[in-house]
């Protein structure tokens, strides 16, 4: 039942806000929070791993070969 309500609500948001609407997965997460009684609406920061390179290092790799894919750059 909760999934149906969340899906319908998300569809209404998409109809109202188009591409600026809340994402479907975020909408479902919020509905789960509401069911638990958690009505705090601010998006929590998502943990991101620290950068493992300096921008200058990435630029140097691109200067060597600017046709490298993201995967090739990541493997270096």
UniProtKB/TrEMBL annotation:
Transmembrane segments: none annotated. Residues 2-38 form the Mos1 transposase HTH domain. This is Mos1 transposase HTH domain-containing protein. InterPro entries: Mos1_HTH, WH-like_DNA-bd_sf. It comes from the Eukaryota. It holds the Pfam family HTH_48.
